[in-house]
Structures are given as C-alpha cells and as structure tokens.
Design brief:
By secondary structure, the chain is α/β, with parallel strands linked by helices. The protein folds into two domains: about 5-70 and about 180-325, Phosphoglycerate mutase-like (Rossmann fold), CATH 3.40.50.1240; about 80-175, no CATH class. It is about 45% helix and about 10% strand. The protein has helices at about 20-30, 60-70, 70-80, 85-95, 100-105, 120-130, 135-140, 150-155, 160-175, 185-190, 190-205, 220-230, 250-255, 300-310, 320-325; strands spanning about 15-20, 40-45, 215, 260-265, 275-280, 285, 295-300. Strands 4, 5, 6 and 7 form a four-stranded antiparallel β-sheet that branches. Strands 2-1-3 form a three-stranded parallel β-sheet. Helix 3 (about 70-80) packs antiparallel against helix 9 and helix 11 (about 190-205) runs antiparallel to helix 14. It is globular, with a radius of gyration of 22 Å.
Length: about 325
Amino acid sequence: MWYTYKSVFSGRGVEVVTTWKVRTQQSAEAFLKGLADYKGEKRYERAPDSADTTLRFYDLSPAYTHYKKGGLIKKCMDSLDKDSRTLATARRICGRVFTPAYVKELMKTAEGKTGPSKGAAFADELYDLYSIAWSMSEEVRNAGFPGDSEGLGVAFDQDDLEWMEFRNGAADFLEKGPGFDSVGIQVKVAAPLLADLINSMDRAVNKPDGKDAVLRFTHAEAIAPLAALLGIREASTPVTSIYKYHDHWSAGIVIPLSANIQWVLYAGTGSGGYLVKVLLNEREAVLPVATTQWPYYRWEDLRAYYIRKLGAVGAGLQQDMMGYLRGLE
C-alpha cells in the first residue's frame, strides 16, 4: 500500500481502528511496520465489543447467532461429516500417526451415539493445527521445535488436504459467505461496515484535508460478509447444494490469512469527479456497477448503488446500527 499509493501519504495522518481482540491489534502493529517512514500522525481507536457495530457486528445480532447455531448449517455439515470421504480421510490420517490397533479403536463411534468418531475428531483438530502452524513458527521455535510444519505434514497427503479444506470451507461459506442466499442474514449483518465505508469516503470527498487513510483491522467474520454484500464476483455467488459451493467460492481466495478489502479514491478526473478502485486481497475487484473504465468506478455511481443495496437490506447511512443488528430477522 505504501509503495503502490505513495502519493496518498502526504502527512495528513492515518486513522487506525482495531477491535479489542489482541490479534487484530497485533495485525495493526505488524501492518504499520510498512509505514515506518511515514511522518504523519497515527491515531488509534478501539470500541468495546459490546458497542462495536462496525467491526464486530456478527457478535451483536441475536438472529445471526441463532442462524449460526441453527438447523440449516448443522444439516449441511452433518451431510459432509457422514460422507464416506470423511471417514476414509480420517482413517488414513490416523493411520500415519498411530498403530493399527489404536486406529481401530479411534475409528469406532461411541456406543449409543451417531456423531463422529474420536478418529474423525482427531483428524479435524490435527488439520486445524497444521493450517495455522506457519503462523506459529516463532512460538514453535521458542518451545524448542523446528519452526515449520514438516512434522505435521507427514500425516496428510494431497487428497486428504483437499477434502479437509473443502469441509472447513463449507462452514465458512455458510456462516460468513453467500451460502444459499446472497442477501441472507449472514450477509445483511455486514451492513454497518458498508455504511461506515461510505461515510468515510464521503468525508474524504467533502473534506480533502482529511486523513490520508483509514485502516480497520477486524476478522474473517467481517471480511467475508462484506465482500458478499459488495457483490464482488468471487465472493457473492450462492448455491443450491453445499457440494457445489467450491465451484464459486474459496476461503483461500476470499478470507486467506491477512485478508483485506481496499477502497482507493482517485481525484481530478476530466469531469472533476472522483473515481474509486476496490480490491479484494490486492486484486482489482469486479463489481455489479456499470463502468467504462474498469477497474475504476465513478464514486457517485458506486455510492448510489451501495446506498440502494443498504436500503434493500433495511439499513441506511445514518441509522442506529445497534438497533438494526438487534432487529434483524
């Protein structure tokens, strides 16, 4: 960002907004190392979890909490858990770690229960650990172990990793992405963040002496639904079968580590107006807004489209967002 948009940083200051979670504050600190040579003020803001409708909206809507714990997601995930590939994958993973006799015990379902076996649960937890091991290299080294995932990787082959990623991504797709409805509650819940983005851009347009940048640090639970609400092509296509979701949506594309969405404002066009470029994970996004200058969109067109989108989900720019979230159905 610093090198690509160097002319943006004229010393007017940077506003840094994080949630109260330690990891977002750590992300902000790491990110701002890239602005070490920036001479302007860096001003920090944090809102308490109970009032953070902009960056932690997903925790403040009772209806959304009910959706996440409801029957639709459970039914879909149960179907994947019961898929023969899940059992076969778990057996292979356990077989690379434990003796055959112990694998046999692990793969048994507890008497009187229909849930996953201990072996399947172990495979899921080992995959979760494997997935984040590269983010823990310093901690692993400090504990006296090699600072990579080579040791964990021996438990998986390519087929195992692909199926585990498919199942993990399915849960993200349903809980945070377009799911079966591109304007379902799991997407509508992001309206406060979209409204805040528009309001921030309005301040930049109407007060050119404003901040050079507003940087927000939040979580995948905010990035994925915002990308879907924006209508970004690879982030907003719903499906009718959970087995088809990966044809249109991938957690690795939409919400990888360090996932980000950027709105970059350009001034001084021939008509005297403003242009905006939107990026998802540093890639120029295709939006459902007409333009003759892609990847640039006229700000007035983009603004009008997203105000209509907010209205369609029952939200507005100056709305009481706590009331909006609590009233969602």
